[in-house]
Amino acid sequence: MFDKILIANRGEIALRIIRSCRELGIRTLAVYSEADEQSLHVHFADEAICIGAGPSSESYLRADRIFSAAELGNVDAIHPGYGFLSENAMFAEQCSDCKITFIGPKPEVIRQMGDKAYAKDMAKKAKVPTIPGSEGVVEGEHEGLRIAESIGFPVIIKAVAGGGGKGMRLVYNSVAFGKEFNLARTEAEKNFGNGGVYIEKFVEDPRHIEVQIIADKQGKILHLGERDCSIQRRYQKVIEEAPSLFLDNSLREKMGDAAVRLAKQCGYENAGTIEFLVDKQGNFYFMEMNTRIQVEHGVTEEATGIDLVDLQLRIAAGEKIPFDQKNVKFTKHAIECRINAEDPERNFVPCPGEITLYYAPGGKGIRVDSHAYGGYRIPQYYDSMIGKLIVVGETREAAIQKMGRALEEYIIHGISTTIPFTKAIMSDADFRAGNVTTKFIEEFIKRTS
What we know:
It is built from 15 helices and 22 strands.
């Protein structure tokens, strides 16, 4: 097992990794920006080194500064968390060059599966259903229009190197296609340094369901079931749960097997997620692969009792997965609400600032992953997520009731948050009945405004 790990991230995920490391007797080195000096991950790590100013381009995205900290700290491994450099193949390669273990998949797998066109091709080779669309990067507007008309509108234009909803454009007819195609390319170039886009048939009113996979260095690959991430806004997830109410055992097994086939096809190691769209008839289509731990990994942990970050560390150190597929079971129902520093009354505008009072809910079956506290100032430079509230119950109904109670207890003063918004969703009849698609929030806002 490792002696010391550098955590190349911030906030709640950095704190989450520190906790697992401590339980395994691993020392930790936190890196932080000037804006994060008061963050809890800095205080709970064994050591901490400032790597730059507040903007991520001057700190958390500066691989050179992270490696300087790694050299000063004499670390064995680096855990990238999610976001920032977690899916940067060059960063993973640099770790290898420096004889530091990168806690994640191999660099070539990150590079390949980060290319959406390549990933789709790998899915086809693994006999995983894919959405009809272009075979690869679409070179020009006229070629794109020809493809769109051949598969039928509506279509969605996506950045090859994209993520987080950036570089995506939904087009309903040929008249709007040219403008949206060029806007998607411009946005892709601006956000990812790669203006390549591809085109897919748009699946209307689908569910967004992802399958968690875990793979060791000996070639053992398992799936840990699914998470329903349909409740999202601007392609950003808001509420996640496991298991999905929509999947029966047969469909769950088919999707799990498909995820494992794809992971084997690309030679995957460590934790990862295969994301699918599922239509009303139960047909599922590969969307993308995330080659890292997910924000919502805690949902799977609570529903299955399996510690994913602990597994990540053990696998990276060369240990085998200590259980088989037959041992993976959903023993509980888990729901997660992301708590963001945003004002739902003002179109979810970010609300950085000082938290004047902070009280986290408690009780059996309630977990709060957060780096916030009373007196903490939320920086303006990063994602607006304050933390994640995860509850677990014997049934979905029990979990919803518990989440409603926990949200009532969650007190954050000084800034606006999404707590009232998620609390309202817990009381919504359609949500409680499981009638959710990726358009749920859009329709919920219309119903309640």
